[in-house]
Design a protein that fits this description.
The protein is α/β, with parallel strands linked by helices and about 625 residues long. The protein is built from 16 helices and 28 strands. Bound molecules: flavin-adenine dinucleotide.
């Protein structure tokens, strides 16, 4: 007997019936068999304990209660700080998070995309300048996690530390503690590397920490044949395959590898699962969810003495003996500082907020990794997966956490590369998304206007689409976060200013031109790969391919990789920086910022690992200051 899942309509209606087949002939069922199998599925699901955690907001904290430390935001960095500070049993710590408990969808890697535009996302939208990003249907949305674990609960799970050069630029900017050696110590402190096969490699063994709380591993993959072919293709254009991008030294034109990820046996590892779950029962740590901090309370001497917070529609005040730590992320941290009277004087006065500390840098220096898709069409890969097999992958996931649900992308190959052989750090990063013929590709790129989207997917009826996603790693352009009004519930204005500096356009074009060389490598040739012209009316006048076409394409098509940083820049000079080397806000006592917003320059890669490292190092800075040596 065989079981077969059949789509009722050609082209995939999504209406699936289960047929029981023997000797090649299939019969419809009475319903008993599907019921039996549905029960088995339920059984699998139940044995995997996919049960959400309880709401923490029950931990009632009386108004005006005093703590040693109050942390605003339980994200990638804030959760680390809450865990590390509450290790000191005589410190009383309060963690306030505007979002709720993570839902099951945060645990299953493939489902991370379904979290955007739900209650677990802040729903931020950037301000469009009317000149760029014209191929986008709407102003660009910025997804930010609003949940315990913050964006580490909703991100794509790729774990990249960055390059030594990145941290050296932080030191050169006047932040002496952030040497490559020191930051590597804190990466290691966080990590619990669990890919046992890879640990046999001495370089990898020496690179990663193995005793930290954060599990770093490789996706539980059962669909990696294609990834290997993609990696091999890079090697033909000078981008060498290595075992691990965090352990290998960047040299030559670049390197590529199967990516490391924050995954624990096929399930997401966020800072909620790694740091908070383990600490939440400590008597000296109180966590309140659905708690939106609206103001940092400052006295006349600019000393932080507490916070104002709304919990279930009720305003509370909590007081602090030592420090308030703001870990609200790149948008909310500068917003909260400005609402509290810390920021550019003229701007605050224009919003009727009295300026307690004039810090022009608050909200400034905003930058991000932009991305641009490079669509490559080709024949269907040999290891084509049909719908029925994908259905069985769901069962596989429930059974042993493998199959496509255990990934965030269908291929986990990442590449870093530069234009010149002499660079010590990468200028570009690239991922590959693969959409089989007649697939759901539209859903993944629905940010584009209908005619542009149709142009991208037009060959997908009988070809597979291998979308290369290109990131520009070190943009020159800088944007800014402004207050819209003095009401904390009014979203700030996000002026992202992608491509504001013209050099970013040509640099991105140069990155695209490197990627287009892939179509002439053996695997892509074997599938008759080609890169079609995308019809964007303003670009149709340019010859294809040409620099002018690609410049036009980039200007119209770029979007965000969600790696925003920089709005509370770390540096010695209060004229442009917000926090000093020890993450203390200039001109204020008892107030630090510990999150991705302190990065003076974005790192060469994904920003979750650096945000966690900042949480680790910031926590030790606090301990070093207050605990006896
Ligand atoms: C969709 C997406 C995909 C990504 N993919 C990757 C990836 O694959 N790999 C990678 O390395 N990086 C990735 N990133 C980036 C990475 O996740 C972020 O850079 C990192 O999580 C930022 O950490 P953070 O601590 O600065 O902020 P967050 O993790 O965003 O935490 C901020 C927290 O503060 C809370 N908060 C904010 N304001 C208040 C307030 N006033 N009161 C109370 N609470 C508040 C928020 O709700 C949130 O929980 C991705 C990001 C997104 C959004």
């Amino acid at each position: 007997m065989r079981l077969k899942l059949v789509d009722l309509q050609d082209g995939g209606s999504g209406v699936i019936v289960l047929l029981v087949c023997s000797d090649g002939a299939c019969a419809t069922t009475t319903g008993a068999a599907p019921q039996l199998f549905a029960s088995a599925l339920n059984f699998f699901a139940a044995t995997q304990c996919f049960v959400p955690d309880k709401d923490h907001s029950f931990k009632k904290v009386p108004d005006l209660e005093t703590f040693d430390f109050i942390i605003v935001g339980a994200g990638s960095a804030g959760s680390v700080v809450a865990n590390r500070l509450s290790e000191v049993s005589h410190w009383n710590v309060l963690l306030l998070e505007a979002g709720a408990e993570p839902p099951i969808e945060t645990e299953i890697p493939w489902l991370y995309r379904t979290l955007a535009r739900t209650r677990y996302d802040w729903h931020y939208v950037t301000k469009n300048d009317g000149v760029k990003q014209k191929a986008l249907k709407n102003p660009l949305a910025w997804i930010r996690g609003k949940v315990l674990g913050g964006s580490s609960s909703t991100n794509a799970m790729i774990y990249v530390r960055g390059n030594d050069h990145d941290f050296q630029t932080w030191v050169n900017e006047g932040n002496p503690s952030w040497t490559p050696e020191n930051v590597n110590y804190y990466f290691k402190k966080a990590e619990n590397f669990q890919d046992l096969k890879l640990l046999r490699d001495t370089g990898i063994f020496n690179t990663y920490g193995r005793e930290g709380p954060l599990v770093v591993n490789t996706f539980n993959s059962t669909v990696r044949k294609l990834t290997k072919k993609i990696l091999k293709s890079y090697s033909y254009i000078g981008i060498e395959e290595v075992l691990d991008v965090n352990a290998a030294e960047f040299h030559g034109k670049g390197f590529c590898a199967i990516s490391r990820v924050t995954a624990r046996s096929g399930v997401r590892e966020s800072t909620y699962t790694a740091y908070l779950k383990k600490a939440k029962n400590r008597r000296n740590l109180k966590i309140i969810t659905n708690a939106f901090v609206t103001k940092i309370l400052l006295n006349v001497d600019a000393k932080a003495y507490g916070v104002e917070v709304e919990i279930n529609g009720k305003r509370n005040r909590f007081l602090v003996k030592r420090e308030v730590i703001v870990s609200g992320g790149v948008v909310n941290t500068p917003q909260l500082l400005m609402l509290s009277g810390i920021g550019p004087r003229e701007h605050l006065l224009s919003k009727n907020i009295s300026c307690i500390v004039d810090l022009p840098g608050v909200g400034n220096n905003l930058h991000d990794h932009l991305y641009v898709p490079v669509p490559i069409y080709g024949d269907e890969p040999e290891e084509e997966e049909n719908k029925a097999e994908l259905m069985f992958d769901v069962v596989k996931y429930l059974y042993n956490k493998t199959g496509y649900l255990a990934h965030t992308f269908l291929t986990d190959a990442i590449a870093f590369f530069s234009r010149s052989k002499d660079m010590a750090y990468p200028e570009f990063q690239s991922y590959t998304g693969i959409f089989l013929k007649n697939s759901t590709v539209r859903q993944f790129i629905d940010i584009y206007k209908d005619d542009v989207l149709e142009s991208i997917v037009r060959y997908n009826a009988d070809k597979s689409l291998y979308v290369k996603i290109l990131n520009l790693l070190h943009p020159y352009s800088r944007g800014r976060i402004y207050l819209n009004t003095s009401n904390p519930y009014d979203y700030p204005i996000i002026h992202a200013n992608y491509l504001g500096d013209d050099r970013d356009i040509q640099d991105t074009v140069d990155g695209i031109k490197i990627l287009t060389k892939l179509v002439n490598t053996p695997y892509f040739k074997s599938i008759k790969a080609f890169i079609p012209r995308i019809h964007i009316s303003e670009c149709n006048e340019y010859k294809y391919p040409s620099d002018l076409y690609w410049r036009c394409y980039v200007t119209h098509m770029i979007a965000s990789m969600s790696h925003q940083v920089g709005t509370s820049k770390m540096g010695p000079n209060p004229e442009d920086a917000v926090v000093n080397n020890f993450l203390k806000v200039h001109g204020v006592t008892g107030l630090r910022v510990i999150d991705a917003s302190i990065m003076p320059f974005v790192t060469s890669g994904n920003t979750n690992a650096p945000a966690i490292m900042i949480g680790e190092m910031g926590s030790d800075m606090i301990k070093n200051e207050y605990l006896p040596k």
